[in-house]
What we know:
By secondary structure, this protein is of the alpha/beta class.
Amino acid sequence: xxxxxxxxLDRDGILKLQQKGLADLGQRIKNSDVWKAHFAKAGMExxxxxxxxxxxxxxxxxxxxxxxxxxxxxxxxxxxxxxxFVATSGTTGLPVTFGMTKNDLHGLLAQxxxxxxxxxxxxxxxxxxxGYGYGLWIGGLALDIGFSALDCTNFPLxxxxxxxxxxxxxDHQYDVASMSPLWLMTLVQxxxxxxxxxxxxxxxxxxxxxGQSVSAEFRAQLEAEMPEGFISHNIYGTTEAGGxxxxxxxxxxxxxxxxxxxxxxxxxxxxxxxxxxxxxxxGEVGEIVITTLRKEASPVIRxxxxxxxxxSPKPYDCPSGRRGMRxxxxxxxxxxxxxxxxxNIVFPSQVEDVIAGIAGTVKEAWQIYIDKEAVTxxxxxxxxxxxxxxxxxxxxxxxxxxREITARMGMQVDIECHPEGTxxxxxxxxxxxxxxPERR
Length: 440
């Protein structure tokens, strides 16, 4: 453990830290006009957070609320104290900016990232290929800070330049790779096209993979392409939380396809029913709602991520000794990405689970298309690619996918099977659901 005095606390110990953090947070923002107005909506004041039920009664936050405060919503320090800004992707509207002070970046974020990377098996002195994007996006920045905090040797290639990256993975002998799982699978194919065998020629030991959640089947297939002993760890976080700092899988949770919430002393993570906002029970699905306790510049309180996850049936039983920090499953999907089609509810992750188990498909290349019809309800199409070396016909692949989707989801959808290389590839977060124009 990186911080055994914190990570080995029981649940009551973690809750005491959280309660103190809430009281301190309330004191920091109690004189802010914007925060006072926000709490007034619920008949509260910011320092009511110190009450035992203060957080449960506090109003929630979402992107609509922050966009109302454009351009620097809920900034709680003078802008002169902000070292840099980060922003959301803007895929569902104007990007929202979040400030970060020197301490937010080099103190809090460094501590949070170091803890997660250590838990995943990253070691001091490792050579790291950092493949997340930069600019206003926090992904690459957070991993840079984390690798620096662990005294790793960082090669910040970012996404793209696949031919070079595949070669450098061999020539530079990287131990760790942080990137999208789809990009890493693409690099495997790129390497093979250059006569490089990742299993023999690469040295990768650990993958820190995020940007989208992938199925256990996809993860197993990716690991099978890698050197002996390689483990891919899913890392999870959000810009609003301050980076990919919420959870990561570890050697203790990897087999159960779960992640560990390792920073619950600095971030309160509620798993709640999205309709009632009440906590879900062990093993149930809920929405992740976060409160950042120690962020100075742009804290959030009860931020609705819209990410849906299953709380572990045994959230506190980790043999690592982390007794008070809970475990969750991989992200199932987003409540606002949920597809309602002819009375059925579909998440893209369910479709991915099917595709990952079908022989002859390219695992990183698939799309869901919503085709709008002029006079009917429209159609849902799942598009995949057949591997050029798979030896299976398109008709066989289509039949297998159609059968599995019907069996698992109880619905009929259209299936398209294209030659390898037809569908989009994504270096970072994949856009799996696309809308095609209305047809007659």
